[in-house]
Structures are given as structure tokens and as C-alpha cells.
From TrEMBL:
Function (record text): ATPase that binds to both the 70S ribosome and the 50S ribosomal subunit in a nucleotide-independent manner.
Gene: ychF
Domain OBG-type G: 2-257
Protein name: Ribosome-binding ATPase YchF
InterPro entries noted in UniProt: ATPase_YchF/OLA1, Beta-grasp_dom_sf, G_OBG, GTP-bd, P-loop_NTPase, TGS, TGS-like, TGS-like_dom_sf
Entry annotated with the keyword Magnesium: yes
Amino acid sequence: GFKMGIVGLPNVGKSTLFNALTKTAAAQAANFPFCTIEPNVGEVGVPDARLDRLAAIAGSKQIIPTRMTFVDIAGLVKGASKGEGLGNQFLANIREVDAIAHVLRCFEDGDVTHVEGRVNPVEDAETIETELMLADLESIEKRRANLVRKLKGNDKEAQQQDRLLAAAQAVLENGQPARVVEVDAEDAKAWKMLQLLTTKPVLYVCNVGEAEAADGNEHSAKVAEMAASQGNSHVIISAQIEEEISQLEDDEAAMFLEEMGLEEAGLDRLIRAGYDLLHLETYFTVGPKEARAWTIRKGMLAPQAAGVIHGDFEKGFIRAETIAYDDFIACNGEQGAKEAGKMRAEGKTYEVKDGDVMHFLFNT
Ligand code: GDP
């Protein structure tokens, strides 16, 4: 599955957000730094209105959304790359995630201590980015030193690693994150394996006050500007509202959202933004028993997409019967789509499209 790490300075609202996300009290929010010491891991269903429509048409008994994992990563402070706070543990946890949801404090509240004594999300973002860049630099230096012997032995893999590490080092020394390095297709895999922290895609999460959840505030406006200039994305959310919503029944939650002037829960936007950030797509399997969503990377071919369900589906792949989402809806289901000639038989080179309704045929 795909993992998003929730990071941010202490007391910005990470645990509150994580609690809301997972609807558990596992990550206890408390008004002091370092309260989230162990990384908390939670799986959430990815909201997708299409799945409900498919299930309604097919009369599916069960609806199973695709899932995404969130990891609440312990507070990072200035100096973390030098081992301050929970520095090293933080860095180890963040290496394993696919993307970073960076929570920024955009709410004013005199009762909640800010580690720097002022609300300034753009500077906070820079503080964390700087720590991540320093950590990358340090790990690059160590790794390059370790490669020296292999390089003397003309080891091809070591040469590739060293070349990529040197490219990252050059931009980092220039004060830029490693993600600005342009990597050739043939280096892409090795580059990803380096697991540099500043190559992870970033989604800024502006945690605003309850009254500002719909439109944000001056702080979130500055974050939006910064995100746009970096080519990163941002979402505006009130962690406190989300936590309240997460404790309500669905119909109560809908009423609450309407009262607050919100079209949908911020968490739904957050999860989808994470999905987009990772270039993920969804295909569906639909039947009377269940309607289910599955996550793939954009551009995945039919056999690999089948492999997401089960390895045997990929190994024994014969073909896929495919109906585009819009056709499935327009024809009122599989039977109608079949009669209208909208069900296609696709082979091993078919690139699965977002929303495809798939049925795989395979040898066992
Ligand atoms: P973490 O250290 O980043 O995990 O932060 P927490 O989620 O523990 O939040 C720190 C404190 O800020 C808690 O007392 C929360 O109740 C409070 N808090 C979180 N989000 C908001 C918010 O949007 N508005 C206000 N006023 N307080 C918040």
C-alpha cells in the first residue's frame, strides 16, 4: 500500500489530524511537544463517490474502498538532523513513506504553545525543509564515503549510486531540496532507492481555526503562495473540526458540514490530494457480492493491475474484460454495457484507465 507521513513541528495539530483520520484515540493530542513518540500508523479508506454509484447499480452487498496508510511521525524540531528532540528516530521513519503531509500551524490560539513563540507557517516550513536537507547531506556524505572501496573495484552499481548521490549533494549544498534534480528514466529506480528525504513529494496541510475552515486565513494564503512557487500542493483544513466530525454519525456530519459552510470533509480532500500527489489511480471490481476499489500507479498495465488483487492474477493473466466507468453508469450496469458493445476484451499491453471496471481472466 501507499504511505503518507504526517510531519510538522510540535503542537501544530498532527495528532489531532491523525486522530480524526483514523477515528481512534490512538494518538492522544496533548498541549505539549513530543507527545507523539512512537509513530502511529493508521489505514483509511479513500473516499470515492463513484464506488457508491457502481455498488447501487450492481446491488453489491458490500462496498470496500481502497486504502491509504497514514503515519503520524513524532515531532521534528530545529536541530533534528543533529540529533535534537526525536531527530534520528524521526528521520528513520520518514525515509519509509511515499509522500509527506506537512502540517503547518495556521491557527492563532494563545493557549497552545508554539515552539517558536509565533505563528509563521512559511518559516516553519523552511525550518523543517532545512532539517531534511541537512539530514540528506549528512547521509549522502556517509554513503559516498562507504562507496569508495567499491568504486575502486569498478562496481557499476556503486558508480551509478555515487553519481546520483553527487548530483543530489550539489543541489543540497546550493540550498535546494534533492527533488529538483532531473533524473533520467534509466536512473529512476536507483534514485528512488536512495530514499532521500527531500525527494519525497510534499503536500502542505494548513491547519486553520474553526471559523476559517472554508476559506482559510492570511497564514494559509501565504502557504498557498509558497506551495505554488515550489510546484507543491496544499489543502486547508481545521484539524479540530475534522476531529469533531469524525465522532459524528454520517447524517449528523453532513448537517455539521453544511452549518460550517463546507462542501465536504477536509479529510476527504486531504486523502484525495495525497492520492493525486502520488499519481495514483483507481480501478473497480463490481459484482453482487461486493463493489471494490483498487489502487494502481498511473500507467500500469492490465497484468500488474491484476497483481494488486493477487499475485496469481498477474502470473496467470489471460485477459481483462473492461468497461469504462462512464459506460457502466450510462448503460446501467454490466449487462447493459455488454449489450451496447461497451465491454472490451483487453490483453497484456492494456494500460488500465482511472475508473475502469475490470474483470480478470487468468490461469491457475
Ligand atoms: P502535534 O504536537 O502536532 O501532534 O499537535 P496536537 O495535535 O497534539 O495539537 C496540539 C494542541 O493544539 C492540542 O491542544 C490541540 O487541541 C490544539 N489544536 C490542534 N489543532 C487546533 C486548531 O485548529 N485550533 C486550535 N485552537 N487548537 C488546535
